[in-house]
Amino acid sequence: MTSERASGGVDRTVGGAAAAGPVAFIGLGHMGAPMAANLARAGVDVRGFDLSAEAVAHAREAGVPIAATAAEAVAGARVVITMLPVGRHVLSAYSGSGDGSGDAGLLAMAAPGTLFVECSTIAVDDARQAHELAVAAGHRNIDAPVSGGVMGAEAATLAFMVGGADDDVAEARPLLEAMGRRVVHCGGPGLGQAAKVCNNMILGVSMIAVSEAFVLGERLGLTHDALFEVAANASGQCWALTTNCPVPGPVPASPANRDYQPGFASALMAKDLDLAAQAIASTGVHAEAGSLAAEIYARFAEGDGAMRDFSAIITDIRERSLTTDVAVERGEGTS
Q: Does the active-site annotation cover 271?
C-alpha cells in the first residue's frame, strides 16, 4: 500500500502525459459535477455527460464542458471517469443498458486501451465485475472511490482509495490529485472499494457510539461542551466526534449547527453500510457492530432521516430514548 499527498493545493494544473487527450466524465451529480469542474480548472479537456437535465445544467454552470451524448463524451477520450449511484448503474453503463445513447455501452464506444476510472461507491464484487468487463473489451480499469463528501469534492480535498495495476494507477494519479488531497493505492482490482467499505463501516459505528454517548451524557447531567472536552482529548477521540460532532456548539463547522443539512446524507451512509453488510455476509466475518450499524441506518433512512446528515442519527436515538421512558413509566419495562 502506498500513500502520497498532492502538493500544497495552490497550483493543481495537470500537465505532461496526464493532460494529453480528453477525459470523459460520466455522472454529474452532487459529487461528479464539482469533481469534473476541478479537472476543468486544472486544464484538463473534460467532456461531461449525465442523463439528468438538471445535473447537466448545474455542471455547466460550474464550468464543466458538456457533451450531447455519452458517445460524444467518450469519443477519443484517453480516460473515462464514472461517478454513478450504485453498482448496477456502473455495470449497465459499461455494457450498454441505460446509458442514454443507444445499445452500445461505454466500453464499446471507447477507443482500445482506454483507462476507465470508476469513482462510484459500489460493492467489491461489482467493482471486480466492472474490471473484468473492461479488460475483456480491450480496456484498462481501476476502482477509485472517494471519501470527503460534497464539501471535499468542491474543495478538491477528496481522498481516493484505489484498486488496480501499478501502471494504471500511476497514469490516473495526476487526475485524481487534481480532484483530491490524498491518493492511496490499496492493491489490485476491487481493493479500493474494499477499503472504502471498511472505512465507512468504522465511520458509521463510531457515529452511533458518539451519538449514544452524548444522549447518555445529557441524561446524566453532562453538558455537551464538557463531554466533548473530555472525549476529544482522551481515548474517545475520533473523526465522528472532532470533525462531524453530532451536537451543535463544540465543532462550529459540523452539520449539527445547520440543522443537519447533509455533508454526507444518512441515505448514503445506509447504502455504504449495506455494502459492508454484504461483504460481511460473503466473507463470514463475525462483525456484530457493523451489521447492527447497517440495520440502524437503514431504519433511519426509511423516513425523513434519509436526506439529513448521517450525524442526525442522534435525533433518532433521543426519540427512541423518550419512547423507552414512557414504557418504563407505564411499567411495561424494556425487555
A: no
